[in-house]
Design a protein that fits this description.
The protein is of the alpha/beta class. The chain contains 14 helices and 19 strands.
Length: 464
């Protein structure tokens, strides 16, 4: 009990060190596989056909490197300590000069160059040989290894290392690493939101400290977590939803937010935000794009005509929220999520906002708006939420396709509701930077969605 308390205390003092119950991102074999896990005494990870316990990772620095080793009780993760590379750099430079006279034209891949058989490798494993020893044995028994170029030798070594001595990099889950992991493994769960598009959303919405940000997050919670991380425990994140059920934000749990940050991540229905304090309702999104505040006696006829439409729209939102929650259950069920110590109940991110905070938002307005709802028409959401912003507040809307954003942009221009409207298409190309091998990656993501951004204004025909 005291040991768990000490681990949590150390984690609060140094967030760079893992603790029991925290979420981590495991980078296996230099990006070949990315997996999320929650560190507990009973949690484990499967690497190839081996299952290793994650207990050695507790109390280590983020960025530590581990290697799978075979022990008496089975495979386990052993920490790899960094070595000095001062002498090896000079050695590589000398090899580069000698390597200019080599090529691979005379090498024929006929599966006869390796004299070490599978039975010999199994015998070495039974004798307790480590993965690095097996890799060195394979290299020494290869008849063509010395004839290869330096680049080919390194490629051969990495290929054998991934098979016989896999390595695991302990990474801290934050906005970029989580977004890249989901985009590589489950891009549909985050609405195909690439990391550069997410960065552009935060920049165009001017998310900064002490801001009250209105968010519509239908991409699993990656947008909510990114905004909360940038706020740094200041301001509020209001995750608005249409209908009766909030949208699933399970990805927020992987950020390892502090209790203070979790208290500032709230959810609220658009209907509650659009109702004034004196009981009147705000009718938004009329054909002339004006905002009218009507009392209950004056809007009976209009309410009856829109009752069926709003009920169908709310039902659709509820179904979207349930389906999004079901999709997120797949990735979170692979890891242990229940912490060992439950001395005090930590606040959960996404609690319902109190009436006092809602009234404050209605009085002052939100400082920015970010929308990522690929399954819903962009204009239907924007026309409901733009009146909740304060004047001169920026907003940014992400969508996988350009046509919904073009329609929304046209309606905003006709209604004179915003200025500085523009649709941006982010583009990303990654480069490999190595000596004599600097070039763009052979495979890249050619599409990153579209972002509509602008600034809300007060038109002459709008109430001030």
């Amino acid at each position: 009990m005291s040991q768990n308390g000490k681990l949590e205390e150390d984690s609060n003092q140094n967030p760079r060190v893992t603790w029991e119950g925290c979420s981590v991102l495991l980078d296996i074999n230099d990006g070949d596989r990315l997996a999320f896990a929650r560190l507990t005494a009973a949690s484990s990870v499967k690497i190839g056909n081996k299952t290793c316990s994650l207990q050695p990772l507790i109390g280590c620095l983020f960025g530590s490197l581990f290697q799978v080793e075979n022990g008496k009780d089975g495979p386990f993760l052993s920490r790899v300590l960094p070595t000095a590379e001062g002498d090896t750099v000079q050695g590589k430079e000398d090899c580069l000069v000698k390597d200019e006279f080599k090529d691979n034209r005379a090498i024929v891949d006929n599966n006869t160059a390796q004299s070490l058989t599978g039975e010999d490798i199994d015998a070495m494993r039974r004798q307790g040989a480590t993965g690095d020893e097996i890799v060195e044995a394979l290299i020494s028994n290869s008849a063509t290894f010395e004839k290869k170029t330096l680049f080919s030798q390194e490629k051969y070594r990495l290929k054998k290392q991934k098979k016989y001595a896999p390595k695991v990099l302990l990474r801290r889950p934050f906005t970029r690493s989580i977004c890249e992991a989901y985009f590589k493994k489950y891009p549909s769960r985050i609405g195909f939101l690439r990391v550069d598009a997410l960065s552009l959303l935060l920049s165009m919405a001017n998310v900064c400290a002490h801001s009250d940000v209105l968010v519509v997050d239908m991409v699993g919670g990656i947008l909510t977590g990114a905004v909360a991380e940038r706020l740094g425990g200041t301001g509020y994140v209001c995750n608005a939803y249409l209908g009766d059920n909030p949208y699933a934000v399970d990805i927020v749990r992987m950020f390892n937010f502090s209790p203070e940050t979790c208290r500032r991540i709230l959810c609220c229905s658009v209907a509650d935000l659009g109702t004034s304090q004196n009981g009147t309702s705000v009718q938004i999104g009329r054909p002339d794009c004006n905002i009218e505040i009507q009392s209950e006696d004056d809007c009976n006829i209009e309410t009856q005509s829109k009752e069926k439409t709003s009920s169908l729209f709310s039902k659709r939102m509820d179904e979207a929220a349930v389906s999004s929650e079901n999709r997120m259950m797949d990735i979170t069920s692979e890891t242990s999520t229940c912490p060992v110590k439950k001395a005090c109940k930590t606040p959960r991110a996404g609690e319902k906002a109190t009436q006092e905070i809602i009234n404050l938002w209605k009085e002052n307005g939100f400082s920015s708006l970010i929308i990522a709802a690929p399954d819903v028409d962009a204009w239907n959401i924007v026309k409901e939420l733009i009146p909740l912003l304060s004047f001169s507040a920026p907003f940014a809307v992400y969508h996988q396709y350009i046509q919904p954003l073009a329609t929304c942009m046209h309606n905003l221009q006709v209604g004179k509701m915003a200025v500085s409207l523009q649709i941006s298409e982010p583009w990303l190309r990654e480069y490999q930077v190595l000596p004599s091998r600097t070039h763009p990656h052979m495979q890249m993501s050619a599409f990153g969605g579209y972002i509509l951004s602008g600034i809300r204004i007060c038109a002459n025909d709008q109430p001030k």
